[in-house]
Amino acid sequence: MVQTSTDSGWRGSIDGWLEAAYEALLEGGVDAVKILPLAKSLNLSRTSFYWFFKDREELLAALVARWRDKNTGNLVKQTDAYSETIAEAVLNVFDCWLDTKLFDSQFEFAIRSWSLQSEDILKEVQSADQTRLDALCRMFQRHGFDPVAADVHARTLYLVQIGYISMQTREDLETRFLRIPEYVTIFGGATASQSELDRFFSRHRRRQEQMASQ
Questions:
Q1: What Å distances lie between residue 46 and 1, 36, 41, 49, 51, CA to CA?
Q2: Which of 28, 19, 12 minimizes the C-alpha distance to 62?
Q3: Cα(133)–Cα(129) distance, rounded to whole angstroms?
Q4: What is the pLDDT of residues 102-143, one digit of tens each?
Q5: What is the largest CA-CA distance in the chain?
């Protein structure tokens, strides 16, 4: 949705306001997501905001929905992706950790930081955690794990990654690639075949090359 007006000019768009709010959240936390500073960053009037959102709370709710749809939605989709082995299934989930189009770790960190200030956001995070863990459990059970084992493997895989995010761990791509075969073995209880690893590494190297060429 884009609004223009002959009397007040360009008012921006929902996506523009939401993207500015997203950037502010990542840079300064939820306290930085305020209407006037966002308007200034977009070179728009403050009143333009109200063509798209009732108030700041509605904007914040849209941010949470964006996080939920992207991070939780894509993680659940990856657990449901086709896999012949549990190693391939784990690698499908690992796509989330390497592709920001699937899972935005900075956004995840910002939302989790926000949850320390808000009981409502904490409930959102806890709900997302449970949804993701449930999806991972189902994935392991489809590959023959009993419910208790599936739960433990799901928690091990997921909580390690949340630890990476919470600690703001940084690894270059080659270092992470070097560790991935062992992670698959630990999290999945099975060794990935060379062809499974080759396919995984190939798609992520190709993505990195595409990003570098843009």
A1: 18, 6, 11, 6, 10
A2: 19
A3: 6
A4: 999 999 999 999 999 999 999 999 999 999 999 999 999 999
A5: 65
